[in-house]
Queue: 4 jobs
Job 1
Amino acid sequence: MERNRRIWIAIGAGCASGLMLAAAAPGWIVGWIAWVALAPAAAVAIAWRGSRAGRLAVPLAYGVYLELLLIRALPFGIAAGQWGDPPPVMIGDSPVVFVAAIAVPAFACVLYAIRFGEPWGADRLPQHLQPLALVAIPASAFAALDFIRVSVDPGGLWGPLFLSQHASDSAALAALGGPWLVSFAIAAIGYAIAQLSLAVADRRPVRAAAGIALAVAAATVAGVVTGLALDRGGGRELTVAAVQPGYDTAEEDRWQTRYFEDGTHDLAALDLIRDLTPPTREAAARGAEIVVWPEAAVWVDPSAEPRVGAAIRDLARASGVPIVLPYFVRDLRQGQTTTVRPTGTFTRIQPKQRPSSFLGEDGGNRRSPEPVAAGPARLGTLLGVDNQGPRTARALADGGAELLASATHDWDELAEYQRAFAAINAAATGTPLVRSDWRYGSAIYSADGELVASAGSGLERTLVIGPVSLSARHTPYAAIGDVLGWLVLALSCLAGASALVGGYRWAHDPRLASR
């Protein structure tokens, strides 16, 4: 009976934490909820560590969290008419059934199997270190999970804890150690609150727990203040623009998309250039010094198609501004970007770093990301999910990029997360970013991740234009890279291995099991 009661408590705590994590996600309610969201599940994981209830709460919370995000993010019909070969898991032009019924539950089961969220090996440490370990070990595990998912998981756009802070001052932590520091701080605060609450509830001395909670909170505040106070160098001001066409290339009833069959992609490119000429000239007339077009704006290499090359060169010369032109070579299934200077010359090609192989994209053209001289600024480009995570943005910033351009082709529910990543990447690298999408969420971010201009969240044909200050200096994260990500991963592996070698000896300790 007692065991069943604990299981139900663990289920309730896990669901409560999962709901609060979802409430803090981009586009939901408010980001500050993330700082307390893990406390209910963490309290169960600490109090009943080693028991079934203790190991259930946090994996369940993460599973509920992902389910709430992904069911909303993958509506039926999102892949209707799109290019590429959809994976076999698609049902109703969406992978939502596979994701919700199989992928997320399987992932939550893996987390349960490895006892994710428990303070691995903490009880093997000296007594005076245990209060700190009860916070640091699971917080490292959460930061390591975000590091792994953002790096290798195609669905890593949904779920990283740090995205909840994209519109908050706490995003400044990313400038110091990358977004993993934000995730670590969120999890650490949640576990510190849980530990303090347990000490109060059990009428045990709260000195150690309170000290840990205060120390974690103070360190987080100090980190935010330090990040906000970083000198970005105050380079010269540059006016940038993003063109948002307001339609999708799968809309066959538009004249702009009448030539998308094999053998007619050059004609489609000419139509597209003709369609985007007015907003590009408007941007130039309003003072824009660089104009960014969305991902796969044309489906041919403009330098290899004489008529297409001539058309885009004529537009660049006539408008007098560099045009960032992402394109997709359909025959090779490769995405890349060039910038057309007002002189009519093309910059060096910048390939897509994270091709979607499950949709048939080929990454054979990839090489290390490097910025190019685009006229008024050294420019680095991010195509599609290159914007997922800070690694490409960081490499470009470290290579001297003064401005980042993120070109995407998103659906409505994805745009909010791409915008959140864009804000975090700008703050982490100290580099302003302009984001251009076909339909949703085009925006401009300053070097500290603040929103400068936005197309809003709705479907709209528009031009987004605004000033940014180019960075003469970048952030500590841009210099050190993912050192913290690898450190938290190493710490988590070490703690997990230590607990495993010890046979989770506290799992059968009657003193702990009776808590």
Job 2
Amino acid sequence: MKLLTPLGLLGLLGLLVLLLIYLLKPNYQQKMVSSTYVWKRSLRYRKRKLPISKLRNILIIICQVLILTACAFILAQPFIKKEVPPEITEKAAVIDASAAMRVKGDQETRFERAVEQVKVLSEATFKNDGIMTVVMAGAKAETLAFRFRQADAEELFEILDELVANKSCTYGNADIDGAIKLASEVLTENPYADIVLYTSNTYIDNANIEVVNVSEANEWNAAILDCRAKLEENYYTFSIDVACYGRSERLTVTAEVYGTNNDDAKIELISEPVYCENGVTQTVVFKPSEKQSEKNIFKFDSVFVRLNEVDDDLSEDNIFYLYGGTEETIRVQYYSTKPNTFFANVLMVLRDGMRGRWRLEISEVRKGSPELSGFDFYIFEHEVPSELPKDGLVLLVNPSASPKDSGLTIGKEVTGAFNLAFGEKHEITQYMMPEIMSVSAYRRMEYSEEFKPLLYCGNDPVFVVKNTRASRLAVMSFSLNNADTSMEINFPILITNLFNYFIPSTATVTKVVDGAEEKVPQYVFDVNETVCINTRGTNLSLSFSGEGGVENDYEYKDIPFEIALSACGTYTIRQTLLSGDVVVSNIYVKMPSDQSNIFRTVDALEGVAAKAPDREEDKDLVVYVAAALIALMFIEWWLQSREHF
């Protein structure tokens, strides 16, 4: 125990005053008087009570001594000094590397400013013999330095310099939550370490994380958030979302449309100035017009959209590329000696359903010999050609003979009443209900290991597929004429799945449609969004035109594959078809729209560090001494009140 005001113990001098009072207090004197009966009785009573009175008086004196002592201690303000852990300065710095940190004001970006401030923090920490941890919140959180001390200072500063030299700031969203979790690992070693986040975001609830906002008040950004093309009444309408952040401005949008209509001309569309209030999104629309029929567009290769005469602090979102305005032609040939309505209906449905993605040219051959090249999808019903085509998908329906060099042998016909059942789980049979499908006849098949059985009748496979770089073949060993009406529901699903599997869109993204995951074709993606790249040919290459026009080429052997594209720009995909033709398509990867808002306000940090235990403080004893004083005063009063009892 220690005293905050030791001079308060002078109050113990009151004990001397109490002693003096008791010394000067007059004592009872004994006098001789004549005895009487009453006096004798009272004397006998007094002698019986005397021991209790002495005890009470002793207790009163003790209480009075303790009361004076308590008063003196209250004046001295006693306290118990708690043991505290040794002071070790430890900091865990988290650097936000999101696209909004690329904002450049006063000749340096926010990211560079954050790195410089981490350097300053590190120097101050090392000066106090402290410990530093640095985590970067990029597309994925990454620990750059874990619990570095003064001896590691040079290495840490080299790491920070490389961040700036390599332009490590991303073009997409940052994994702030993951970075905070990594930084929180230092708390297992030192629960009193401080976590500091360098960012441009404002957090309403930042929990126990120190947030350093590196943005500047005069920064601003004008952005193209999105661009869409919609075919309406045979002509395209272009809708462009624009916004300003940090200030309000009037923006003018120009759309340069390339490869238009049949003459592949360039058409330039310029909007009227549109007023963009700070933080409010506006949509610029270019619609077909009867007055400007020469600028009405029903086909295009690409659209380059830009903001005119804008000098903002973030240039990456001032342009936008849009692709997919020209449908690629897919040629389908249907050959049958006994055509049926199933194929006529399903091909019409397929043609309508693929609009906007493919333009289907369907050729039906009823007489003569079918073409064996020049098509993407061949359907042969009943009769099998002498040689199977090599440049596209081949579907054989109820083949009468074994295809040459296919690895497939057609056997005898089996008749009866049969219900279909699933074979191997596959994309081609998804959404189908084979248990309600029945056939009256089918042919047995024997096949090589390259085939996958997808539908069965009893123990016999009746629908098999082969997908290799040299051959793409699907075989249905029963006639649609021998199937019941349930085939009208399942057959369009089967053909659509077959088409999507063997003739896939080049770039797709997985989305949930009607409660099920589905790969949806797209031409515009956000940075770091997972893109599925597929090909309907033998191989594929991907190239990117980045900063300064530098192209990076990527070759892939495993197709399809998924990739997260990490930079803004145009990616060119070249695929070689089975026919040997090379098809070139483009996709555009843009900065996420929420990163264009360079002054974002976020509700709360997720995955924040656990709160460190409170540091132990000195324990004040004045309250306890005061409580004891009151108790002693009450006891002393009670003893005094019992004097005549």
Job 3
Amino acid sequence: MQTICAMARMNPRKTNGITQSSSRSTWMRKPFSDQQRLDCDAINNVKLNLNCRDEIIPILVALQHIYSSASVREPILRLIAEDVNRDSRRDIGREGFDDWQILVLAAVRLGCNLDYDKLQDLAEQHRALRHTMGIGDWDDETSFNWRRIQSTLLLLKPETIEKINHLIVAEGHAIDPDARKKVRADSFVVETNIHYPTESSLILDGITKILALCVVLSAQFDVSGWRQHEHLLKKIKNIAITISRMSSGKSPKSEERIKIQYRKLLKRSLKILRRAEELLNQVADQEADVVTLCNIMDLKRFIELTQQVCSTAHRRVNEGETVPNSDKIFSMFETHTQLYRRGKAGQPNQFGRLVMVYEDAAGFISHYFMMPRDAQDADVVVEQTRIVQDRHHNEIEDASFDRGFDSPENEEQLRTIIEHPCLPKKAPSKFQEQTKNASIRFRDARQRHPGIESAIGALQSGNALDRCRDRTEIGFERYLALGILGRNLHVLGKILIQQTAPDAKAAESRRKSAA
């Protein structure tokens, strides 16, 4: 198996369910096309309807501003180039998207809350968007197939998109220097794209993948014993459906009946797992191609995950143990998913990852942080506030938080980082006393703080950060970064429009000037 692991490191990289192979090295790219076209205006001169209230208008205005400023454009395009051609040449191969076109597509994807199909249609039909990418009206050859867009955007690393965000926020602060003096922070759960996890459904997911992989590998290595795989899966599925129906019932006898069904499910599942392990041992020392090695590694991973779920189910059902969340798995495919019980109305349980965001006075998300699985607000606030203060060049004067960040140590340490931190007490009696003796600055910060909920709502509804549509933990981080990128470009575009056309519909904002 060590030989298999060593060879598997040579496999094509799988990201978000798509294999990124060495074929990317065949794409020839350039930063942008500076050749003047007859069928469209220059990018910085593309006419936009500023009386249109659609979110794409501020984003395109912000992109035009970036394109016009070489000091901002060049480092951004350099970052993109390092990712899309980090191990290949740029001067040979088929013609690929320009670095500038990749930036535009990345900005619009979650800036306008689009899936890849809608993004393809917009890139093919939206005239202003095509002109912003440097695509003229006579160009019928450039393909914007959704798979091509997806495979290109997946080459961007989350760290790269975060650096691009920093450059955009820095440009916004250059336009509005006072924006960096005030921040407000809060956290929210970005859900992963999973079904509601129960142990029976997770075991079914694992057995389904294990049987499919075993059938492929047994045919590859001519190993018998898997002819009845459909029958085996049907038995597991029937038990899982029975458990699901019983769980929704209110009969007093349901609990004991569910235990009986779980014992049947565990017995059958463990039998299949043992047979799958025997198959793994049989093929461990066999020579195989890269695809087969990937299947072997996937089979090993799903066996381990399914065994873990079976173990927690046995502890909970047969032994009556309360299993801690740290021992649980909430998805066979998105294993980084965590359960959060934050007392939200209508959402007592949320499955995803906790993300902390800092919003400045202009509305930019100047910093965001995806917390470790076992971390809570109070665990990270001091470290992350220190990072934000450094990023704002030590100019933050006021920072507001909510009660979830409170602890005596946090309050003391935040005062060494920020001159006027607003950190309300958790205990109601202490909070009332704190409010009674608070300064005017503290009261103003408390009054402004609920605006962060509006920013989070905008990220969730406008930038699709309510539920991640991409796969894997890296895909989750990239998705989060793209959502923040779309929001920051939207804010930058609003500021620019308000300067040039304050009465335009696209410049309208309910944000207070001293937010």
Job 4
Amino acid sequence: MVPPDNIFGLIPTWVGVYVLATLMFGLALYILYRRVYTLVMLGQRENRFDQPLRRLIGAIPLTLGQRKVMQSVSIHDRAGIGHFVIFWGFISFAISYVLFIFADSISPSFSAALLGETGLRVFTIYLDLLSGVLLIVLLWAGLRRWVFTPHRLSFDLTQKNESVIILLLIAALMILSLLSEAFLKASLSCPGLSPSELEQCNGHAVPIGSAIGKFLTTIGIKGSIADALYQISWWTHLLVILGFAIYIPVSKHMHLIGAPLSFIFRKLEPMGTLPTPTDLETADVFGAANVQDFTWKELLDGYACAVCGRCTDACPANISEKFLSPMHIAENLKDNLLSVGPAIAQGKDLVDDKPLVGSYISEESLWDCLTCGACEYECPVGVEHINMIVDMRRNLVMEKASMPETAANVLLSMEQRGHPWRGTTYSRTDWAEGLDIPTLAENPSAEMLFWVGCTGALEKRSQSVPRAMASVLKRAGVEFAILGDEEGCSGDPARRMGNEYLYQTMAQQNIETFRRYNVKKIVTTCPHCFNTIKNEYPHLGGEYEVLHYSEIVNELIKSGRIKPAATIQATVAYHDSCYLGRHNDIYDAPRQIAESIPGVKLVEMEKCRGQGFCCGAGGGHMWIEESRGRRVNHIRTEQFLETGADTVGVSCPFCLQMFEEGIGSVETSGNAKAKDLLELLDESLTNGN
């Protein structure tokens, strides 16, 4: 848009532009400082400034490329495409404002000198057409939000009102942009123009604006009348733009600023990695009970939240009719921060009339969480819900001893017996009876440590998995050993349930055992042990090469050290373990193992890979009883049965347990079964020789 030379002949345009911009942006910055920065900085310190180049480069596809938004685009939900168009419309017009308003108001030839005459004309035509496209997209967005509302957008009226305000403001910008071009065209479309005026008129031959301008001239709106209307529309357009700067910090659309920051300061470790507090002996508070107990990144995430509901829509707990809504965890934390934060920032004592947990967030919703990561995978703005939830669990468990009875029983068993399986009659080595497997004490120079895990060693159905693993490794000629009775629990259940002190105690004991035997390489059959030892033990000084069995077994097959021979007639639907797939990005290796077995036909469930559905055992729910609604593992079992497969293939002992129970409760024909991929592979290897 070409700026007018002056404001109705009174003052130069550039004076009005910069005076208004200084006032409005100054007010916006003041609001950002008081309403956002000072409150976010109430949070605990956390180093999110390391590896700045990696952070900045990695944030580009997440912000400019809208990668997280577009990953959810499907035949059922095309909202990401609309958001992508609106986002790039915003970027395009932001560039145009810098060129045509702030630069050209001082130097009218700046944009032409920068882009060239041809480039300027192409860019102007592009903006004109984009205005029309955005109006159509905004109409679709309005209908979708208010008429054909999907479940995840069924929020309270305040959120819907904010949505309609922002849609109307963007629509106003597009309409005013087109009208400005139209009135300018109409003001120049008069007989007797000089050659320079004709060139200027032709230079503004944009498709939509020119068509509207031509129509205006036919109804008598031209010359000085059109010029006056042009100035009114141009300045109104500028006021709406500057009004955005003030509206954004006080609305949910603060995510326009919060989301890029959230991506820049994102977690660089695998998703399944929890931060490790190092001050348990001196901390004033365990976990998080009040806003100042959270990290500044967790508080920032509340502002980054777009209130789109994608996280809640993907949450297995929410789908199974539990209280948990990950979106409301982030939003309610922000609401509490806005309520009590200003007083805390002024040094006043916190009045605990409406505590965070209990008033804004229910305890039950925190215990509903499976820590599966579906919320974080779907979140288009990089909110890290799991950290918040585990922080609040830590406070409930370690400060208030408030937890479900089943969780308390598991933690007591871990403290007294060193494992979560209450009532088991098995020892750590019973599964290996007759297999002639050495311990590290017997063979300290073994190539690798086979970490069996509590479930594989102590739960009857799961014992066949480490037996199969040992058989496979022996056939491949891999030298390995186990810890036997010296193996303890990895501590994962305690950590996810909130008992950080118990986790660190167990982890340190294991690290000391590893150090005593100079352990360098570890292979596990449990994704939870794998994730904890690989990603979280390094925080406590324990760094090792840690592999899940699917990684090493797949390599043994590829190298020819083992070759499945016997045909296994089975149609296998593979289930992605959350802690192997989403949390550690291991999707292909298990599938390649299944495909290597003769006779096995591999099929996919509708919810698979990154969008896989939890079995229901994560976050301690292998032992914590579900609070209400349907059982998550029953829903997942039904999803497996919908494929028509006769076998659900897993690579996690927790998943195996959950499907065993689910099939027994949901499936009626008795034909379906749950198998670990190792069991299928070992059967093919054994029967093939």
